[in-house]
Structures are given as C-alpha cells and as structure tokens.
Write a structure and sequence with these properties.
about 150 residues, alpha+beta, 4 helices, 4 strands
Amino acid sequence: GRSGRGEIPGEVLVKTRHPDHYLFKSLETNDQNLFYEKELEIRRRMSLPPFARMFTIELRGPSREKVEKTAEAIFDSLRNTGILGIQALGAGPNYFQKIRKNWRFQVVLRSLDLESPFPLEALGSVVAKHKKSGVSLRLHPDPQNLL
C-alpha cells in the first residue's frame, strides 16, 4: 500500500497464524541475513534454485480437456524417458488457469546439473510428438515464477 509516504511515518499491520515464522522475525529485527539464510537452507533441502534449474512447458488452448490431456501425456513421456538427468516433477493447471478464453496448464521439470544447459532439442522432440491442434506450447528455461 501507501503506508509511510511523505513526512508522516507509516504503520503496517500483518495478520498471520504463524507470528513466529522467520520472515516476520527478520522483518521485526530488520535482519535480511536471517531471512536469506533460512530461505537458502530450505531451497537447498528441496533442490530448488539456486541449487537446481527449473524448466516449464506451458500449454494453452480453448479446450480445457485437450490442454490437460496434452500436459499429462507430455509429463508421462518425459517421466519415462529420463532425458539427460531432467526430472519431470508434475503436470497441472497454472495458477491463473484461464486467461482470455484459453486454459493454461504446465509441466514442471528440474535439473540438478547446474553446469549443463537444458537439452532443448531432446525436449522439443518429445514435446512435438504430443502437439495437438488447438494447443499451443511454450518452453520456459529458468522461469522467473511458476504462475
């Protein structure tokens, strides 16, 4: 919001079920390192960036059923092929499931090899086998978010 703009100091109220969470402790004490260290440890244990690389295949189309089935088929193919250390984590609807009359699903992949680029050619050949009329596909290496 607009709290604290101008000469009058602002105040922020936060309602939470977890007041002891490290996020709020780091905000109270203005300790960015506390948040950074805790978050980095969680990401290391969960094999998330920066300890892994993520990749998404975004699918869109006007038919929810067709987009969903295509996403599941791509996920099943990638899960069973084992392309160069790529792990197929799952397929499901995007956070914003429908935008402008198009349903959106995604397949989420991960690589623990930080040095090698994603094998786009190999992924492309697997994805191409499942390309259907009315379903558009986009490949997103190292996505900024999973929305």
